[in-house]
Write a structure and sequence with these properties.
Oligomer: single chain
Largest sheet: 7 strands, mixed
Number of strands: 13
Shape: elongated
Structural class: alpha/beta
Strand content: 15-25%
Radius of gyration: 25 Å
Helix content: 25-40%
């Protein structure tokens, strides 16, 4: 019995020893984490060819900047700058609650003054439905959707449209809407279509080569079971419209009664996936992308039908709202 116990102990020790040999401990030093970020992005990021980004050249540019004796703060700043070379704020390093995203606005004119919106147009007699604000501006309906963060922005849209049933048209203002949940915007758009409509095509990464993508997935919307609004709709957009709000813009842009007014949207046509790095930090990487029904990639934004740039010195009127009202009153 004693001999069997000794053999069992030796066998167990051998297995543990083998595990250490064949499964070495993961390194989490700065250089190893940098290498990991490079490899994870290279295998999963979807826009290398579309943006004509040479990831290997960027890697060689940043490699000498990474040392193991850097502070966490310095390493985070340099690693974020490395990732921001992908020009995609969906793709970013996350350290605790910190992240440094790519500036997709390119210093564009804001084309939105929230203070002016409340002082001149909403005043103190607007109605609310969660984060959504709405009001009649004489014969025109006005709806302001600041974000899609909660995923329930669509829930009272039937009541909103019933309130606007006698209007000449509706203004839907999503300027400065940075996104959130895609499905809420899709549900809102269903109130403006009268037939099943193709609104987007989606592709996801399937392999490590730059052009390894799935077959297209077609996205449709169908008319809502509730109120359908068939009068004209003016969708107000600016450069700060991003991600799910950009998807909403693309969806609405496929509806004949909708006109886009303002500036080109900020884009953000990718969907990110999160990866946990060796040191416990996280990286979000866009590994899915979308196009409109005509294969236009929406990553860099969607141009308006009517371009209007607000005069930053004019604090009396919102030229984009005024043009939308003018269009609806034709």
């Amino acid at each position: 019995m004693k001999q069997k116990i000794q053999l069992l102990f030796i066998f167990s020790f051998f297995l543990i020893g083998c595990e250490k040999v064949f499964m070495p401990e993961t390194k989490s030093d700065n250089i190893s984490v940098f290498e990991e970020v490079y490899e994870v992005a290279k295998a999963n990021y979807v826009f290398f060819e579309y943006k004509q980004i040479n990831w290997d050249s960027i890697y060689l540019e940043f490699q000498p900047k990474i040392t193991n004796d850097m502070s966490e703060e310095d390493f985070f700043i340099v690693l974020s700058a490395f990732v921001n070379k992908l020009e995609d704020t969906h793709t970013r390093i996350i350290w605790n609650d910190k992240s440094i995203g790519y500036d997709f606005t390119n210093n564009a004119n804001a084309n939105f003054d929230k203070e002016l919106l409340f002082e001149k147009y909403l005043k103190d007699d607007y109605l609310t439905a969660g984060v959504v604000l709405y009001k009649k501006l004489n014969d025109v309906g006005y709806v302001y959707i600041p974000n899609f963060w909660y995923g329930n922005e669509h829930e009272q849209f039937n009541d909103i449209l019933n309130y606007f049933r006698d209007t000449k048209g509706i203004i839907v203002d999503i300027r400065d809407n940075g996104g959130g949940h895609n499905m809420s915007g899709m549900e809102i758009a269903r109130h403006f279509v009268t037939k099943k409509t193709l609104v987007a095509k989606w592709y996801y990464k399937t392999g490590t080569s730059y052009n390894s993508f799935s077959e297209k997935y077609e996205s449709y919307i169908e008319p809502s079971d509730e109120t359908i609004y068939t009068n004209n709709v003016m969708l107000l957009v600016n450069r700060e419209v991003y991600s799910a709000a950009n998807d909403f813009t693309n969806t609405m842009n496929q509806i004949p009664s909708v006109t886009l007014i303002g500036d080109t949207t900020g884009g953000g046509g990718g969907i990110p996936r999160m990866y946990i790095l060796q040191n416990g930090w996280k990286i979000n990487i866009s590994d899915t992308y979308s196009t409109d029904p005509f294969d236009f990639n929406v990553e860099h934004g969607i141009a308006p039908d009517i371009f209007i740039e607000m005069d930053t010195l004019n604090t009396e009127v919102d030229e984009i709202i005024e043009r939308a009202i003018q269009e609806l009153n034709k």
